[in-house]
Amino acid sequence: MSGVHLEMRGVRKRFDALNVLADVTLSVHPGEFVSVLGPSGTGKSTILKLLTGALKPDSGEILLNGKPLSESKRPFAFMPQRDALMPWRKIIDNATLGLEVQGVKRAKARQRVAPLFAEFGLEGFEQHYPAQLSGGMRQRAALMRTIAQDKAMLLLDEPFGALDALTRTQMQHWLQSMREKHGWTVLLITHDVREAVLLSDRIYLLTGRPARMKQEISVPLPRPRGSVPSPEASAIESDILKTLLQPKAHKA
Amino acid sequence: MPRSEPKSHGLMPMFINAIPAIGAVAGLFLAWEAYVLISGISPTTLPAPSRVVAQTVEHRAALATNTLATIRATVFGFATSLTAAFLFSVLIDFYGPLRRALFPVLIITQTLPLVAIAPLIVLWFGFGLTPKIMLVALVTFFPMLVALVEGYRSTSKDLEDLLVSMNAPRHKIFLMARLPSALPYFFAGLRISITYAVVAAIFAEYAGAVQGLGIYILNAKNNFRPDLVLAAVLVSSTLTLALFGAIVLIQRLSTPWTRLEGDKAK
């Protein structure tokens, strides 16, 4: 994956009377894992929709390597909140979806994604339908579909939000090791403080309605990070919680 | 997508599930047979089921010829209606205002009483196949169109957003997400429409035809032969059930994933 540098500056978005994003400024550097952390219903997902083209911003700039997003081919592979696997496609054909949209023939696309199955712990499930898989496996299949598109940046929208707590923890650590190995550039949307601290290089805290960037936090902890948070990680977690749970509104 | 409750597969459980229904039907016919025997009612008023079956066998040649004509009218009419419904559903899906223009007109066509329309169409188009195809299409087109259009609209927003994020053009979103999403709706519509289709074909024949179960029923009635009327009813019910079964079979074969939903990971 080639490097891509994403910048959003002063991005605003409103739906009729509802002001969703008041002022979103963030950047993702090549090879970086960046999280946007905030409570539910603050418009976090809207940020990704602006990037994937499902929505257009009202004002502000979205730049890719310094050029406006609208002028470039979108280098993003998007993983939605719910797995959005197509129930009528077998897992292998769900995994090839992005390639098929790009015009790759189905047989060729299958050949290209087949080697991914072992790494995603889905070997032997190629010919299964999504309904035959557990929640964790479905999320891995959805992530595999995202990776298979071979794009420069992954956009993950609360990828593990629908899983039970144990499976979620397993998946977070699995994602961490996969990302260590492949060096993906990731923009993650989450409401899970521990998830953000475990996975991210930097975290943007978002406050709600309308959403604004409240604080930017570096997580300069060594990797791999353990399943029990280190004292440093715990300190960062409690700082974030304090900030997010503050009853008072944001400062500029 | 509508979830169905877990079903057991295979022939044996299907047979066991069918036992109550078979019992109810058998009970009904036994009671009918017993009533005819005990009351001594004339067979020109109410023939016993056994007589209806015997007459069906005896007149099998005439019934077969007429059934074939009805099948032809049903299949051609239904195929015409399906093709038209699919084309219009695609047009409506790609061009929304068309829906607002077409639906009121189509709803009015559904309010027309068949008793009035069938003789008129026969009057205008003769005793041939055309008026039958038209009547079958008139009755089945709108339910099929509604099923398809609603099916497309049932597509999950997540899937569409995902395809948009992959830069999929509109026609690919239609083919990859909207069309497969509509399949369960399509089959639900199909199952209902096929039963209407047979009834509509028989109705059209009743209003005037050279051959067909409809005209056979009319002649039998005019000759005071309720046993032959019921023989034709027996055949048409069997035909409808067979077509219904064929559609259920096609659905099972073409949408295997729908049976998996409900029973979870193994």
Automatic annotation (TrEMBL), chain A:
**InterPro entries xrefs:** AAA+_ATPase (IPR003593), ABC_transporter-like_ATP-bd (IPR003439), ABC_transporter_ATP-bind (IPR050166), P-loop_NTPase (IPR027417)
Using the record's annotation, list all stretches that form the ABC transporter domain.
Answer: 6-233
Which UniProt keywords are listed? Answer: ATP-binding, Nucleotide-binding, Transport
Indicate yes or no for the key word Nucleotide-binding.
Answer: yes
Instruction: Tell me where on the tree of life, at the top rank, the source sits.
Output: Bacteria
What start-end ranges are recorded for coiled-coil regions in this protein?
none
Entry's Pfam families?
A: ABC_tran (PF00005)
GO molecular function annotations of the record: ATP binding; ATP hydrolysis activity
- The name on file for this protein is ABC transporter
